[in-house]
Amino acid sequence: MGAEGKRVLFLIAPENFRDEEYAQPRAALYAAGADIATASRSTGYCHGMLGSVAHADTTLRDAVKQDWDLVVFVGGNGADTYFDDADAHTLATKQVEAGKPVAAICIAPSTLARAGVLNGLHATAWPDQEADLVAHGAIWDGTPVSVDTAASGSVVVTANGPKAAFPFGQQLVGVLSAE
Question: 161 — phi, psi (to 5°)?
Answer without folding.
Answer: 150, -170
